[in-house]
From TrEMBL:
Catalytically driven reaction(s): a 2-arylethylamine + acetyl-CoA = an N-acetyl-2-arylethylamine + CoA + H(+)
Record's protein name: Serotonin N-acetyltransferase
Any one biological process term the GO annotation gives: circadian rhythm
Origin organism lineage: Eukaryota, Metazoa, Chordata, Craniata, Vertebrata
Organism: Brachypodius melanocephalos
Database matches in PROSITE patterns: GNAT (PS51186)
Entry annotated with the keyword Acyltransferase: yes
Signal peptide stretch: none
Localization per record: Cytoplasm
InterPro entries documented for this protein: Acyl_CoA_acyltransferase, GNAT_dom, SNAT-like
């Protein structure tokens, strides 16, 4: 059994019954809504959403296309995409980190022995923003991390205006982040991840 097949909240979620043809027979359709880990084949779709979401705000993207492919090859299990009828509408990409706080190296490295999940980017397609999808996806991602034995906490860095959003998701500020990108300064935030044994007893993982 794969790790993902044991996680009920990552199995495809069908939000409406299959459509029927005029003759009453069901026809095959894509799931109305599905959550799954991303693969390198999703990299272009990921980058298109990210580029539109970030370029207009900060002038740059957290991850460029080659970096997206890099992480989706190294640690696809630390990503999560939300698909509606087969189309990617929101995603998170993470990697493992092995130090207490983030440093410049955390932007490009995946430390396989680390116990902190560095969340590089969360982005939602422009056509479905202001619908709460970012919060829902983050909640599902944090639930998923609780079933990964290595994960003990989640780290991210964000601009100050996003701090209230991540606080609502359960993150707490750790103070100014030592990572800088151009003229941008960031706040580092943390979310504790419960132990694997606890979740196996309490959530069926």
């Amino acid at each position: 059994m794969s790790a993902l097949s044991a996680l009920p909240f990552l199995k495809p979620i069908h939000l409406r019954p299959p459509r029927s043809s005029p003759g009453g027979q069901r026809r095959h359709t894509l799931p109305a809504s599905e959550f799954r880990c991303l693969s390198p084949e999703d990299a272009v779709s990921v980058f298109e959403i990210e580029r539109e979401a970030f370029i207009s705000v900060s002038g740059d993207c957290p991850l460029h296309l080659d970096e997206i492919r890099h992480f989706l090859n190294l640690c696809p299990e630390l990503s999560l995409g939300w698909f509606e009828e087969g189309r990617l509408v929101a995603f998170i990409i993470g990697s493992l980190w092995d130090q207490e706080r983030l440093s410049q190296a955390a932007l490009t490295l995946h430390k396989a022995q680390g116990s902190a999940v560095h969340i590089h980017v969360l982005a939602v397609h422009r056509t479905v923003r202001q619908q709460g999808k970012g919060s829902i996806l983050m909640w599902r991602y944090l639930q998923y991390l609780r079933c990964l034995p290595a994960a003990r906490r989640a780290l991210l860095m964000c601009e100050p205006f996003l701090v209230p959003f991540y606080q609502k998701c359960g993150f707490e500020p750790l103070g100014p982040c030592q990572v800088t990108v151009g003229d941008l300064a960031f706040v580092e935030m943390q979310h504790a991840v419960r132990g694997h044994a606890f979740m196996r007893r309490n959530s069926g993982c």
